[in-house]
Design goal:
Mean pLDDT: 94
Distance between the termini: 17 Å
Number of strands: 8
Order of helices and strands: EHEHHEHEHEHHEHEHEHH
Structural class: alpha/beta
Helix content: 40-55%
Strand order of the largest sheet: 1-2-3-4-5-6-7-8
Shape: globular
Largest sheet: 8 strands, parallel, barrel
Bound molecules: cytidine-5'-monophosphate
Low-confidence stretches: none
Radius of gyration: 17 Å
Length: 237
């Protein structure tokens, strides 16, 4: 289990990140997620910048391309020294295997963990069936992608916590279920569809939670972070 909630740094500039991090104690080592919004605007330097703070990084670029391109892209990303990165499982087994190979040949002592996005947590079942022409249920699609990721020797998947139990049943209990769509207050879900609280995520078997707006868009981010962390990791219980 990754004990710290992974904070989704969905900002568009280094300046905004600096302002945000000022709200946290200097000594607090965080696990942060850099997504495409930030990475495409600030480039790879943003990773070195965050590493200087001592933070762990999940580089969430959700690669999805032909195997050769993904392998070479991963080789480059491996050099950044992040702790975790990802691809889309719908890119297929050969693509996922190529991604892993690329990461492993990046020349780093520790290979970043590699996980695959199953179905985005903003996708509902009806939408998946109508737009992706997938006839199965959402949970079957997610489990199918999880098995595919496991067979491709990946470390886990990105999914909704609601799917963690089923995924662990078709893979292994230690197969990472990294779960966004976390809302301490279920009233405010924004564009997410499959949401749960940090406590429920823990109880139903998530191995890590990714939290964005409930921490980044509130008046006191550190307070929100501490509350979520406590609820998630059972500290003080
Ligand atoms: O603000 P919020 O808590 O909804 O942020 C969730 C984060 O997790 C975003 O950065 C989003 O890109 C990411 N994510 C997601 N669903 C996935 C994969 C990643 O919401 N399936």
């Amino acid at each position: 289990m990754i004990k710290r909630p992974i904070i989704a740094l969905d900002f568009s500039s280094k300046q905004e990140i600096e302002n945000f991090l000022l709200k946290f104690p200097e000594a607090e080592s965080l696990y942060v997620k850099v997504g495409m919004e930030l990475f495409y605007q600030e480039g790879p330097d943003i990773i070195a910048f965050l590493k200087d703070y001592g933070h762990d990084i999940f580089l969430d670029l959700k690669l999805h391309d032909i195997p050769n391109t993904v392998e070479n892209a991963m080789k480059g990303l491996a050099k950044l020294g992040v702790s975790m990165t990802n691809v889309h499982a719908s890119g297929g087994k050969t693509m996922m295997e190529a991604a892993k190979l690329g990461l492993e040949s990046g020349g780093q002592k520790t290979c970043p963990q590699l996980i695959a996005v199953t179905q985005l947590t903003s996708t509902g079942e009806k939408q998946m069936q109508e737009e992706q022409l997938i006839k199965s249920s959402l949970i079957d699609s997610v489990c199918h992608y999880a098995v595919l990721a496991k067979e491709s020797t990946l470390d886990g998947v990105v999914c909704s916590a609601l799917e963690a139990k089923a995924i662990h049943q078709v893979t292994t209990p230690d197969f990472l279920c990294v779960t966004p769509g976390i809302r301490p207050n279920l009233g405010k879900v924004q564009d997410q569809k499959r949401v749960v609280t940090p406590k429920i995520a823990r109880e139903i078997g998530a191995n890590a939670i990714v939290v964005g707006r409930p921490i980044t868009k509130v008046v006191d981010p550190y307070h929100a972070y501490q509350r979520i962390k406590q609820e998630w990791s059972q500290e003080n219980e």
